[in-house]
Amino acid sequence: MPAPTTTTSMTSPHPPLRVRLLSVPGCPLIDQVRAAVQHCLRTTGIPAVVEDIEGCYPSPTLLIDGVDVATGQAPIPHACCRLDLPTHAQITAALHKGATP
């Protein structure tokens, strides 16, 4: 499991967003979501702390400020395989929403 990473931007006066990638160990789709998040962070320049967390979660799940990016809801508290991966548009919109005071 990768260590938490921080992506920062000097253009934002706001504290970094909390981005969490939830997955079960060995999830074959987590790398795809991780790459999409990194791409969107680079593109938007929004500062964020990204955490990878393995456990009993719907996998993969992307949370930005505690909200599931794909559903707009709080995460479901049980393990299952997800195929509804968040799109770049959903990730970017969630980043902008989280960065707005």
> Tally of extended strands?
7
Rg over C-alpha atoms, rounded to the nearest angstrom: 13 Å
What does the main sheet amount to? Answer: 5 strands, mixed
Q: What would the average pLDDT be, to the nearest integer?
A: 88
Quick tags:
Glutaredoxin; alpha/beta; five-stranded mixed β-sheet; 2 helices; 101 residues; globular; two-stranded parallel sheet; disordered N terminus
Would you write up a description of this structure?
The chain has 101 residues and is an alpha/beta fold. The chain has a single domain, classed as Glutaredoxin, CATH 3.40.30. The chain has 2 helices and 7 strands; from the N terminus they run E-E-H-E-E-E-E-E-H. A 5-stranded mixed beta sheet has the order 1-3-2-5-6. The relative contact order is 0.26. Residues 3-10 have low confidence and may be disordered.
Write the layout of secondary structure elements.
Layout: E1 5-7, E2 17-23, H1 30-44, E3 48-54, E4 58-59, E5 61-64, E6 67-68, E7 80-81, H2 88-99
Parallel strand pairs: 2-3, 4-7
Antiparallel strand pairs: 1-3, 2-5, 5-6
Helix pairs in contact: 1-2
What's this model, at a glance?
With 101 residues, the protein is an alpha/beta fold. It has two helices and seven strands; from the N terminus they run E-E-H-E-E-E-E-E-H.
